[in-house]
Design a protein that fits this description.
Glutaredoxin; globular
Length: 137
């Protein structure tokens, strides 16, 4: 897996550093992503989290890493953390995790077509799109 990630990143011109600890507890990072889901900063945040973990080898378990990412995006990290720790966000993440498990999703990125076909991996997007064109029901 690590060698495959190295090759994929090299082909895409992306930096890659194997994190010292893996897997990492991404609970706070995921909760913050849910806070930002309807905000304009969400996509930049998600890219920054991946870059921190896999491009820089940083610990996304560390709240300071997440806070730094938020500050870089011009956000008040303390205010976002308060929202991320709310019962609403905790329940929403739990529900989304349970739904992902029900659907058989086990990694990121995953693509689920309207007819229930699951495609996993960065290199599977084209296959998922092709499937939807060929096998419309």
């Amino acid at each position: 897996m690590w060698r495959d990630l190295e090759r994929t990143c090299a082909a895409l011109g992306l930096p890659f550093v194997r994190p010292e600890a893996f897997p990492q507890n991404a609970l706070l990072a995921a909760r913050v992503a849910l806070v930002g889901l309807t905000e304009v900063w969400n996509e930049d945040y998600c890219r920054a989290v991946y870059r921190a973990e896999f491009g820089e080898g940083r610990s996304i378990e560390n709240p300071a890493t997440i806070a730094e990412i938020l500050k870089t995006l011009g956000l008040n990290a303390d205010a976002v953390f308060v929202q991320a720790q709310s019962d609403e966000i905790k329940l929403r993440l739990r529900a989304q995790t349970e739904e992902a498990q029900r659907l058989g999703i086990f990694g990121s990125p995953s693509f689920l077509t309207a007819d229930g076909e699951l495609f996993w991996g960065n290199d599977r997007l084209e296959a998922a799109l092709d499937w939807t064109k060929r096998y419309k029901r």
